[in-house]
Amino acid sequence: MKGATMFEKEEILLELMVNRHEVFRPGGTLAERHYYSTYALSWIELYHANGTIAKTEFYRLPCHTLSSQNFYQPDGTLMMRCTYYSDGTPRQTIFYDRHGFIKKVIAFY
């Protein structure tokens, strides 16, 4: 597709009180999905080229003290979850096996 560019669309999800902003790759596959609350960016989802979710990042809102990131295998299986305190200091990292079971936990104190 010569000259193709990523394109974007926005949608308001009234039941969640957030706006959703989507970014698509050339050819139309979903690349990113951003969710915004009335306060700030709430979370981002990044997608593999095959359409499965690659990573989610959750951002701290005024009422929360933690943020987290989830990383996924190309088949959609959760691979790793990292949690952070509001100042960005790591709290814990959880690794999962191919079946979704916890394989290892690293906690930071």
Automatic annotation (TrEMBL):
<protein>
    <recommendedName>
        <fullName>RHS repeat protein</fullName>
    </recommendedName>
</protein>
